[in-house]
Automatic annotation (TrEMBL):
Keyword S-adenosyl-L-methionine: no
Pfam families, per the entry: ABC_tran
Gene Ontology cellular component terms for the protein in this record: plasma membrane
ABC transporter domain residues: 15-227
Signal sequence extent: none
Keywords, sorted A to Z: ATP-binding, Nucleotide-binding
Protein name, as recorded: Putative ABC transporter ATP-binding protein
Keyword Ribonucleoprotein: no
One example GO MF annotation: ATP hydrolysis activity
Length: 227
């Protein structure tokens, strides 16, 4: 069995990387962030991508999400996977400053055509799951960084996407709060059958996902190379 086939859990492949590479800058100044990654993500997969800061974990997630295009190789998505079927929890601040926490959580649902009532119900339920529903009417500048991270996770959970990509979702949170956010991501993925990919440098977080792959200096290690 090849390295990129070890994540087989369900029949439908959602996204495939074949020798996908990503670089920033040009010429002699170019920095290669991902070297020839090979990976398949199937519905129901639970994957932790582990590595230190700067190892290329975030860049790999951006390739999987379609936010960056590979400079070589390719990334392909199943034809049944729509734009709103992919939810990305960013590592840094990602809430829209002019919108309340609730409005931020509602936005992807409204853009996808849900009614305001449906969007608010789903958003409030997601905010409650990560413990920030009491902050629903506040602006991002009125909450802490950790609370903003939880609200950003809720925005993705409210979408009920088929592929959840979470970039260090517990990195700015204390242990108990981080565990709650990870619980919510895992529960949401279990409920919908979504694939969940989490980047992390925390072994305790990685241990809660079924499959672990390591990144070192932009290279996605094979399962045999992963500690």
């Amino acid at each position: 069995m090849s390295a990129d086939e070890t994540l087989a859990t369900c029949s439908e492949t959602l996204v495939t990387c074949r020798d996908a590479a990503l670089a920033f800058g040009r010429g002699a100044q170019a920095v290669v962030a991902v070297h020839g990654a090979n990976l398949k993500i199937r519905a129901g997969d639970r994957l932790a991508v582990v590595g230190p800061s700067g190892s290329g974990k975030s860049s790999l997630l951006y390739l999987l999400a379609g936010l960056e295009r590979p400079i070589s190789g390719d990334v392909t998505w199943t034809g049944s996977l729509g734009a709103y079927d992919i939810g990305l929890v960013f590592q840094g601040d990602s809430l829209i400053p002019a919108l309340s926490v609730l409005e931020n959580a509602c936005l992807p649902l409204v853009l996808a055509g849900r009614t305001e009532t449906e969007a608010q119900e789903a958003a409030r339920a997601a905010l409650d799951r990560v413990g920030v529903v009491d902050l629903a009417e506040r602006l991002p500048e009125e909450i802490s960084g950790g609370q903003a991270q939880r609200a950003a996770a809720a925005r993705v959970l409210a979408q009920a996407p088929r592929l959840i990509l979470a970039d260090e979702p517990t990195g700015r949170l204390d242990h108990a709060t981080g565990a709650r956010v990870l619980d919510a991501l895992l529960t949401a993925a279990d409920h919908t059958g979504a694939a969940l990919v989490v980047t992390t440098h925390d072994p305790a977080v990685a241990a809660r996902l079924t499959v672990r792959r390591s990144m070192r200096a932009g290279r996605l290690l094979t399962p045999e190379e992963t500690p």
